[in-house]
Amino acid sequence: MANFKTFFISQTLTLTLLFSTLVTATYHHNISPSLVRSREKLTHLHFYLHEIFTSEKPSNIVIDPPKVVASSPLPFGSQVVIEDPLTIGPDVKSKEIGKAQGFYLSATQRPGLELEIVMGMALTFLEGEFNGSSLSVLGRNKIFNEVRELPIIGGTGEFRFARGYILARTVKVDYHKGDATVEYNAYVYHYSSTSSSSSPHLFNQGLHLCHGDY
């Protein structure tokens, strides 16, 4: 009887360890960075973003504005949802190449036009080589600075593993109505999801990727 108990306990421990090993084995595995470093690109993107409030179909909407009396057109705590067109030129009617979708928050308690916002948005491109790919941006934007720097913290599609920055410069703005055109120069390091590679399956485990269907 004692031998049977010993055998049973031994087999139970063995099966438990085996099961644990199998679960761990399918949970993750290491990939050598050298497999992708040679494919890293540095790309410069130049385009214009248009914030439109005064339209039958505005691209910016203020949600739940703060219930305070303030001289600022965007009082502290204001939240704005955006779907701004991105164009090839400064004219809003020039060729549209993408859109910026996201939000920004008024993050300063200074009175007047001292606007400081925190922006979070996805820049999705709808034309050319980067059709269907996007860049993720999150950072502080001090509107009155001539040039502002925004960090690029990620991306999708042709911009996988993206990192970099954007230099934003206001071309024209109406601070009371809110309409604005901003020039963007983006510099981004990234790895394409569709470039030829000896091991493309490393980042597409069992997935069929479709680009341009956005």
UniProtKB/TrEMBL annotation:
Primary residence: secreted
Keyword Coiled coil listed: no
Superkingdom field: Eukaryota
UniProt KW keywords: Apoplast, Secreted, Signal
GO biological process: one example: phenylpropanoid biosynthetic process
UniProt-listed Gene3D superfamilies: Allene oxide cyclase-like
Annotated signal sequence range: 1-25
Annotated GO CC locations: apoplast
Family affiliation: Belongs to the plant dirigent protein family.
Function: Dirigent proteins impart stereoselectivity on the phenoxy radical-coupling reaction, yielding optically active lignans from two molecules of coniferyl alcohol in the biosynthesis of lignans, flavonolignans, and alkaloids and thus plays a central role in plant secondary metabolism.
Summary of subunit composition and partner proteins: Homodimer.
Official protein name in the record: Dirigent protein
Organism, as annotated: Glycine soja
